[in-house]
Amino acid sequence: MTRGNQRELARAKNMKKTVKKAAAEQDSNKGLSLEQRKARDAERMREKQLKKQQDQQEKAKQGAR
């Protein structure tokens, strides 16, 4: 039964490689280093959070009326 476990571990390891490789090869990531991608993604997340906070504040104002 240990071979079954080895197969599962190998499948999981291969899946991780495939996902990692696919993310690096997307068109939006071409020409960017890992640090540049992280900075870009962090900036987008900050923008999303700010927008969500603003939407919540507007809903709170409308609910108070």
From TrEMBL:
<comment type="similarity">
    <text>Belongs to the SERF family.</text>
</comment>
<feature type="compositionally biased region" description="Basic and acidic residues">
    <location>
        <begin position="1"/>
        <end position="11"/>
    </location>
</feature>
<feature type="compositionally biased region" description="Basic and acidic residues">
    <location>
        <begin position="35"/>
        <end position="65"/>
    </location>
</feature>
<dbReference type="InterPro" id="IPR007513">
    <property type="entry name" value="SERF-like_N"/>
</dbReference>
<feature type="domain" description="Small EDRK-rich factor-like N-terminal">
    <location>
        <begin position="1"/>
        <end position="38"/>
    </location>
</feature>
<dbReference type="Pfam" id="PF04419">
    <property type="entry name" value="SERF-like_N"/>
</dbReference>
<protein>
    <recommendedName>
        <fullName>Small EDRK-rich factor-like N-terminal domain-containing protein</fullName>
    </recommendedName>
</protein>
<feature type="region of interest" description="Disordered">
    <location>
        <begin position="1"/>
        <end position="65"/>
    </location>
</feature>
<dbReference type="InterPro" id="IPR040211">
    <property type="entry name" value="SERF1/2-like"/>
</dbReference>
